[in-house]
Write a structure and sequence with these properties.
Layout: E1 2-3, E2 10-11, H1 15-35, H2 39-54, H3 58-80, H4 97-110, H5 116-128, H6 148-157, E3 166-173, E4 180-187, H7 190-201, H8 216-227, E5 236-248, E6 252-261, E7 270-276, H9 288-307, H10 325-329, E8 338-345, H11 348-355, H12 394-403, H13 426-446, H14 456-474, H15 485-488, H16 501-521, H17 525-543, H18 551-574, H19 584-600, H20 609-621, H21 633-645
Parallel strand pairs: 5-8
Antiparallel strand pairs: 1-2, 3-4, 5-6, 6-7
Helix pairs in contact: 1-2, 4-5, 8-19, 13-16, 13-17, 13-19, 16-17, 17-18, 18-19
């Protein structure tokens, strides 16, 4: 059946008849467009053609016309008799806009986009406008605006899907005296959250516990299962821990510990605990008393994973208290899975604090080998470098920590954890390290050659214009919006691109484009070395995410990057130039690219980009808009809001 777009009647025309009629109509339009301005006549002639092709007689056509007219008349009468209420929209489905609005406004409030008072005002306005399912929130903050935050949080957290917090006393710094005191902080226990995930996912949970077949992590997991007598059909869950500090409020910092299911690339991060930096113990331990006390709870929870049962006592071996009634009732029950700690991720600052590393200012620069600044030079990237022979195991690593006069981290009591689980990640070793050095030097050398201009300012502007053109051609998402001379080289410093990690990684193709153009413009040994260096860097980046991971290709590319970079450094030193400066992160990248990839596999599976997003979220939800504050305030706010977000994602 074909519906006529002119008179809205249906005709039983075949496709061939319809095409024939359309051709006739088009010829009429061409004819009458110049001879007759009256569209009514044209429409009548079109209708006649359609009727003829459909085989409808004049009497039938008249009957249809009368019928159509009567229908229109009846419809107009029906419209005239309508009440204003009849014009409202039909009822919405169960998953209606009011539920969506409630979730969105709750999410906005929990992320601190709006204050509690503003959120309550918006909810009341929506309720007055007729929004359903908001009656229980419509009176919040109306008579007592000061209590709006408390009342809203109670509503938000009511449907939280995460377990209730576990409270424990932790040593902290007294804000008034600076002496050590104790604070009761909340923690979301790993084994309890994992149990809820397991129950929610059912049989699909097993898929979240398997590494890619043949990967380094898969081999480590298989060895752990054999060593602990876990049957290959048993459910063994590898988890990863991440720690970091994030800017918080205006002058403070928030220290966070999170974890995730590390079998799934980019899996959701789960909060374990947090504390403000200003509240860390300041007795001379550099905050380790606070950190270690928090990690002891994490270790206790992971040890419950290894047993596969809910713990019988609290983390300090005391009996369950009055607030732990639910936990006491579950003592000894099966978790239906076991687990172990497979990864520890973080930046260099976190590793220094956690494991007692001395930092770049110290003699040793690596925890995996004997590379140092004197007799075992870290800048030696050759196959015969001394540090390649002096490799550390967990025992030697712990001896080094003791020599530094630092206590051993409680993490080493976690099931399955050893020195090799401390992951070097792409973000901190390469994107915020060696890649910035390489790209910064390439961009600096391009000024006045690849980028034209009478002075440095015009050259940078031309370089930015070419960079934007490159971004457009390549469809790059993570872009440097504004390039300045200070971002390429600061006064008194060697060239280094100062940008975010993802921006550094995504500008490498542009650096390769520059290197190709400069070598083509004036080929020499230097431009060839630069071109080979950036090409090798691109080769390494291209291995990320490939399945199965090409370990040998990654090792080859990494070794080429380090050797070529050191060669450029030696050339610059010989010429008296401060360029292509070698720093310890070159060696850290070489450890990741040549050794860690062989042991653990694809660096993309344990990089920290998702972790960085998570700490940013926690900084948002922990933001305070005023009021009294103690060491317990911010950790409690972060925990409550994170739990509430589980019901309002």
């Amino acid at each position: 059946m074909i519906k006529c777009v002119f008179c809205h009647l249906h005709f039983g025309m075949s496709k061939r008849q319809s095409l024939k009629a359309r051709l006739k109509i088009e010829s009429i339009e061409d004819e009458d467009r110049s001879t007759s301005p009256n569209r009514k006549i044209i429409n009548v002639r079109k209708q006649v053609i359609l009727e003829e092709e459909a085989g409808i007689s004049k009497s039938e056509s008249k009957a249809l016309s009368v019928k159509s007219k009567s229908k229109r008349s009846a419809a107009s009468k029906q419209d005239a008799n309508k009440t204003p209420a009849d014009d409202t929209l039909p009822p919405l489905e169960e998953s209606d806009s009011e539920d969506e609005f409630r979730d969105k406004i709750t999410n906005i409030y929990l992320r601190n986009k709006l204050s509690a008072k503003e959120s309550a005002d918006l909810i009341r306005s929506a309720h007055k406008s007729g929004a359903r399912d908001l009656a229980d929130c419509s009176k919040i903050g109306k008579k007592q605006p000061k209590n709006a935050n408390r009342d809203l949080m109670r509503k938000c957290i009511k449907k939280a899907t995460l377990p209730k917090p576990y409270y424990a006393s932790i040593p902290v710094k007294d804000r008034k005296t600076g002496a050590q005191t104790w604070a009761t902080l909340p923690f979301l226990l790993v084994h309890e959250v994992l149990f809820q995930i397991c129950v929610a996912m059912g049989m699909a949970f097993r898929d979240c516990t398997e590494f890619p077949e043949g990967s380094g992590f898969a081999k480590v997991k298989a060895k752990f299962a054999r060593d602990h007598g876990i049957h290959e059909d048993g459910l063994l869950v590898p988890i990863g821990i991440h720690g970091d500090g994030v800017p918080f409020q205006k002058k403070s910092s928030l220290e966070l510990i999170s974890w995730n299911l590390c079998c799934i690339e980019g899996s959701e991060r789960n909060l374990f605990g947090s504390i403000e930096k200003q509240d860390l113990c300041d007795c001379g331990c550099y905050g380790r008393h606070t950190l270690d006390a928090m990690l002891e709870i994490f270790v206790w929870s992971t040890q419950a994973l290894l047993t596969g049962k809910f713990p019988n006592k609290r983390h300090d071996s005391t009996e369950w208290g009055g607030k732990d009634g639910d936990r006491a009732a579950r003592s000894g029950e099966d978790l239906h899975f076991k687990g172990y700690l497979a990864q520890c991720r973080g930046d260099w600052q976190w590793f220094k604090w956690l494991f007692g590393f001395k930092g770049w200012a110290g003699e040793n620069v690596c925890w995996r080998c004997g590379a140092n600044k004197t007799d075992c030079p870290y800048w030696d990237a050759s196959p015969g470098a001394a540090w390649r022979v002096l490799r550390y195991g967990t025992g030697m690593f712990l001896d080094m920590v003791r020599q530094n006069g630092v206590a051993i981290s409680p993490l080493f009591s976690c099931p399955g954890f050893d020195m090799l689980n401390i992951c070097i990640d792409v973000l901190h070793a390469l994107d915020l390290g060696l890649a910035q050095e390489i790209v910064g030097n390439v961009l600096f050398e391009a000024l006045g050659v690849f980028a034209a201009g009478r002075n440095r300012k015009e050259q940078v502007q031309d370089l930015q214009s070419k960079m934007k053109d490159h971004y457009k051609r390549m469809g790059t998402k993570n872009r440097i919006n504004q390039l300045t001379a200070e971002m390429i080289k600061r006064d008194g410093k060697a060239p280094k691109l100062r940008s975010k990690g993802a921006e550094s990684r995504h500008i490498v193709p542009f650096a390769l484009e520059i290197a190709i153009a400069m070598h083509a413009n004036g080929p020499n040994d230097h431009t060839l070395t630069v071109l080979r260096l950036v090409s090798a860097l691109m080769d390494f980046y291209m291995t990320l995410g490939v399945r199965p991971y090409p370990v040998e290709l990654a090792k080859k590319a990494c070794r080429a990057v380090c050797l070529l970079y050191v060669a450029l450094n030696e050339e610059a030193v010989a010429a008296g130039k401060d360029a292509w400066r070698v720093k310890p992160k070159l060696h850290i990248f070489q450890e990741m690219g040549e050794y860690q990839t062989e042991q653990l596999g694809d660096p993309k599976s344990y990089w920290c980009y998702t972790d960085e997003d998570f700490v940013g979220l926690c900084s948002e939800i922990g933001f305070s808009r005023g009021g009294p504050s103690t060491a317990e305030t911010t950790p409690g706010r972060v925990c409550d809001r994170f739990r509430a977000l589980s019901a309002h994602p």
